[in-house]
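G., before I forget:
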Amino acid sequence: MKVVKMKRIGLTGDSAVAFAAKQANVDVISAYPITPQTIIVEVLSEFVHNGELDAAFIPVESEHSALSAAVGASLAGARVFTATASQGLALMYEILYIAASLRAPIVMALGNRAFSAPINIHCSHDDAYAARDTGWIQLFSENPQEAYDLTLQAFKIAEDKRVLLPTIVNLDGFIVTHCFEGLDVFEDDEVPNFLPPREPVYQIDPDNPITYGPLAFFDYYMEIKRQQAEAIKNSYPVIKEVLNEFSKFSGRTYTPIKTYGMEDAEVAIVVLGSTAGTARYVAKELRKEGKKVGVVSLVVYRPFPVDELVDILKSVKVAAVLDRSYSFGSPGGQLYMDISAALYNESERPLLFNVIYGLGGRDMTISNLKSIFEKALEYAEKGKIEKKELWVGVRE
Amino acid sequence: MSKKLKNWKEIPIAGLITEPASSWNYKTGNWRALKPILDQSKCIKCLLCWVYCPEPAVRRHEDNSVEIDYDFCKGCGICASECPVKAITMVPEGGE
Amino acid sequence: MSEIKLLKTIKELPPDDKYEFAPGHRLCAGCAIPILVKITLKVIPDPKVIVNATGCLEVATTIYPYTSWNVPWVHNAFENAAATASGIEAAFKIFEKKYGKKKPHIIVFAGDGGTFDIGIQALSGALERGHDFVYICYDNNAYMNTGIQRSSATPRGARTTTSPAGEVIPGKPERSKDLIAIAVAHGIEYAATANPAYPIDLANKLIKADAVEGPAVIHYFSPCPTGWYFDPSLSIKIAKLAVETGVWPLYEVENGKYKINSPSLKYLKSPKPLEEYLKLQGRFKHLLKPENKWMLDLYKQDIEYQWTLLKRLTGIG
């Protein structure tokens, strides 16, 4: 596939996502405003009201109804988009499970924001993590360009007949959502070459009446869930396929996991979201000093890329797993638990420690990251983890 | 009523029921304790029993005569209660 | 509403050449809900889509792998039937616009639980946005599917498991909400109450509701043998008494104009005593005891109040 016609325009992360949804020619948008996602909803309603986008914009009265309506529209066979953050995601929580279980391909942009209380509108990964058990595919963007690119890819992944699972594109609240950058976007007429219209497998069709969402007792519920477990596992090769296809289409490479310096790293940071960029900068500086450090960031968070991650981390001595959230009462942060479970039975695996950072928009600085790498190197030297959980950037 | 249960590979995705009106295979007639008996000679073809039967277990013919479908009748007795000419009587299922 | 054909007799109801609602469901013997469903599916033309909230109807008609539905049917969750219907409606509206696809008639079935209480927000939002669907609330006066717990549609004084007929508080202390008033407050074109004992009235109201280009609400009185404690054969008799004693006013509101239907006009002329309705149901038995007369009086006042309002709104006396 040849690299296609593009243009450079300035967009924030939010506007970029809305722009992508427009170019994807969505049929139905069902969303409720919440900081920091409000601009997505506003820009989309402008497109619709100006006739630039032929879609139904449903100004729902809550996030619970936003996702409920999105499920309805998706079952009707529409290409559907929604967006939310934090409390909004928490409010639609029960429907997240239903959307995935009913195999309704919906794309949701999530402006990662902290959960209340106290109320906070800035970046944490609480909401992304809250969705991790729900059966949704989850992608993480690091910057507005990725937010744009991944939104287009999300539609293709979600609607693929081998997948049929709703997909979240995560954007760090304020950091990515409100960051204004020059982006390389496709010309409108090029997008259908990557993303043709949706072809539903099952849809609401009076000529072919289907019962969606029955009651299943203990005699069938487990089989239906087993089937769903298989479905999200089987989505992984399709995700890779789509990322690969997009890479060729755009000339911008996408892989499920991004690595820096991992060919010979002794220690590594594993991180989600925009902090990866800063981490890579710090790693580059430390490498100049001869320190063998690396950065691993996940683009695909669910389904969790177990095999590839095991492979990337196996020769590393110590890995610092960064969590921009906290799972109160759990044995560690959410990503830390995911990685521990993935690595536990491996004969070759690094020692792990957990770093809690950036909660509620607390800035993750260059010196913070430097100290994390230094700690990892110290533990590597000692051959043991002295403190399993490290809170960085908080006043103790 | 016992069908062999299917495994996870044999069922449609998402718990969808793709066979419409499959409840025709679940015969609720065995719920009855009382059974309606229709005296056709009294029937005035008003269709009240047909409209009121919840299942529905009253079959309407072209000439507007009716017939009870005992495969599904739960024996609620609404038909007997509402029949304006008392053409339907409820008797114990399985005789006295 | 022009050019719609209303029915005069039961015989005019379409016969069952195609059962869009099949028997074999597990609704209780004598349940009034399937009577509503049968008639609805007969008089609202194809193509149709049903959206069903969690509750008696949804659970009893779709126990995997059995379904009683021969029309597309969607169940999402308990409180979001109206929101789910909004999404389906928006999708089909845009398909019609973009691809010329025919828009189906969208029918929502929800109980009083999924409408009055947990579902009120979604209903309000959908009505405000003006989606084109018919919302039918089958009101059996409590959360019946989960075992007879009170809802805000439960009449004052009624016994439920969460408003038991106790010695200190005999039944539900609160009056019930007025759903039609809530619906009308959203400025919708058509809202009406309905009752299984008046099937032609019900059918015609459904036809009118469907003819509206926008939302319409039907509030259906649904006697429940299990939850109201009466012999299943009495469902229709009790439904009729509800109208004849004034408990269930039969009326419709077309573009803000209230009209009381003739069975209720008959009640106004010659009302039957409330006790005739109450004594047939176990859930009201305690109200007939002298020590609970105060609660019964409050219930009578509620019925009186709803009629004062209706009379004022229709300009009758």
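Chain C has twelve helices and eight strands. The beta strands of chain C are 48-52, 73-74, 105-111, 134-139, 190-194, 216-221, 251-254, 257-260.

More on Monday.
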